[in-house]
Design a protein that fits this description.
Helix content is 21%, strand content 43%. The protein is built from four helices and eleven strands, in the order H-E-E-E-E-E-H-E-E-E-E-H-E-E-H. It has a six-stranded mixed beta sheet with strand order 8-1-2-11-10-9. It has a five-stranded mixed beta sheet with strand order 3-6-7-5-4. Strand 1 and strand 2 form a beta hairpin.
């Protein structure tokens, strides 16, 4: 085994500052790219009984059963029909894999740490607990999500089932 090179260290640092952005309604959100395993088009979802409305069920991802959460419903937005832009973001949270339904994937962006501002206290108090920061990207504001906070309760629920 060889020691990592300086270039490899830079690649890791670069990945840690990259975010996958996606749309939910007219709002843009970002998720750390290191948490993203893949982006998958819609596929069959098997509904699980007695689960919250935002837990859409499970899907088969190459033989693995993956829970699917609809972020639109999770965030209290109106449900809408899935269309050709709707995708699953397959994310890794600790040792778990989860699929997140989003309206559309936008881009991968690089953010310097100083481009991220803390979530305003008022926004945190009004349901912004899932947001770990706000980034300025050109003229846009992107809410950077804390995936662990979003799915932690749901994964515990599904583990208990």
């Amino acid at each position: 085994m060889t020691a990592p090179t300086f270039a490899q260290d830079l690649d890791v640092a670069s990945d840690a500052n990259q975010y996958l952005t996606f749309q939910l309604g007219d709002q843009e959100y970002g998720l750390e790219i290191l948490a993203v395993q893949e982006i998958k088009g819609l596929s069959a979802i098997t509904r699980m009984p007695n689960t919250p409305m935002h837990v859409k069920g499970v899907t088969n991802l190459r033989g693995a059963v993956v829970p699917i959460l609809d972020l639109r419903v999770r965030f209290g937005l109106a449900e809408r029909e899935y269309d050709r832009f709707t995708v699953f973001i397959i994310a890794t949270v600790g040792s778990k894999v989860v699929g997140l339904v989003v309206d559309a994937v936008e881009d991968v962006i690089d953010l310097a740490p100083d481009a991220i501002q803390p979530t305003p206290e008022l926004a945190s108090a009004l349901g912004g607990a899932y947001v770990r920061g706000i980034a300025h990207v050109g003229e846009r504001l992107v809410a950077l999500l804390d995936i662990e906070k979003i799915v932690s309760g749901d994964l515990a629920l599904l583990d208990a089932a």
